[in-house]
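Quick start: what a row looks like.
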Amino acid sequence: MSTFKARIEDYVGSVGDDTFLGDALTDTSAEVIRAMPIGKLGFFSVESSDFIYNGIDISNHKLLSVVREHGTDGEYVECREVSPAYFRKAQDVNSLFKGTVDSPVFTVKNSKVHVFPSPASSPNAVRLETVNFPTVTASQSDISQTTVTDSTCDTTDGSANVTMDSTANIEVGFSVSGTGVQTGSVVQSITNSTTFVLSKNATASNSNQTFTFTSDNLPDSIEDVVVLGATAKAIQYLMARVRTSLPSTPTISFSGITAPSAPSAPTISYSNASLSNAVSTAQDGVAVAQDAITTAVDGYTGESITQATTSNAGASSSSESSSASYTAPSIEGSAGDKTLLSMTDGTVNTDTDQIDYDKWWDITAEFIENEEDAELAQLQMEKIRSYITAFNAEVADAQNAMRASIENAKNAHEEAFLNARLATEANITNARIDGSIEEASISSKTSSSIAKMRESTGASIAKMQASTNASIAKMRESTGASIAQMREGTNVALQNAVRTLEASIQDYQLEVENFRASTQNYSAKVQEKISTYSADIQNYSQQVDRYVREYSWYQDQYVRFDTKYKESLQVLIEN
């Protein structure tokens, strides 16, 4: 039969990693064994030799059952499994979960088997029935549960006893092969930690021989399911390799290509032509050559004027009377400081209160409210009305007298104002006459002074004009010569500047041409890089497409084999 590697790679192609295939086969074998019911595993299970201690390691086994001797050598009873939570209760003599010789219990804690009552030498030994999780390699063609090789085995011709350094890795039922071992021999029993018994006697006496111990192979039906599961894992492995095998994304780099620098713009300048004789220094200033008019003129200071003075016209005051004032009529009564509208408390039948008008109101109220004498109250009111009528007559007389006084005062004031106006008009007329006399005197003196000033100024102006004309003529002659010299010097300077400018422009044009050539070379290199990058991108896209198709195919195959694996495992479990 083909190896497992060949069978898997017939499905998916080359995997290229035998170690991974071995791990996939080993893991899938353990998955299948764990999934199968205990009743179906008894066909290829292995019963151990006697254990006389607790904490039996089953990390690489699936435990099917545990038995314990019940006090008679070779007679075993089934142990009942309890939860690890009852680990202490299984040892408590007062607990319902305590194991006994006739009804022992076991629990699995940290992948180790603990049996209670604790095992000891026969007749209290313990045996386990297990199915080993096999280690499978890609080069195998069948799955044996365990293969152990030991090179310390010693045999005696005609004897079934074999000694070795340690029996820890072998179990009862393992097939044995090696020098001096008959075909079909198995481990009959394990005597102790260094001795076991063969099912057939040895045919030679040897020391330190290499024996191979092999447990029974798994059925072909299980191996087929393992191959399907390992194939699904191999496809996952290949899918991961597709992702890690993707090419790197292309990149573009312009290192090593330096863009040319644009030439700096030339600095073109020239100095203005300078003249040895500047126009401003060649001419004689007119302002210096002329005589100032201000020094030739006799200044006019004017005549002194005595202002005519006038006296204020005095107005005689009228003999008008003083301002009229109104005197209110006095009110008689016992209390002379009271006003007509004052009201104070009065008493009926009191002499002083009868003439104090400020108490009449209260007495009237007394007649009405307290005395309830309407007749007396009416008489009292008549008294008050008579007094008010008399008082009003006196007020009217006082007003007439005041009006007469106001009229007299008005007439007196009007007469005084008329006299004052007439006096003032006379004074103004006198002042005008005095002013005319003074004006005539000033006019005469001013005309004489102005004539003198005009004569002196005319002479000064004539002198100034002569001096200025001479200075202007000198300035024109000097300035003309300076301008001619300036023009000649400026023409030479301009010619030199033009030649310098032409040379600078020519040099700059050469630099620009060199820059254009460098730019074209730079553009060509950049275009070459871009073309290479475009080709890399296209190639990358093609590779990605290929990897995508490959990944998709693996994905479809994974679904197919994983589904087939699970279906086959379910059939194996149910049948």
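That is the whole record. The two ends are 25 Å apart (CA to CA). The CA atoms of residues 168 and 499 lie 110 Å apart.
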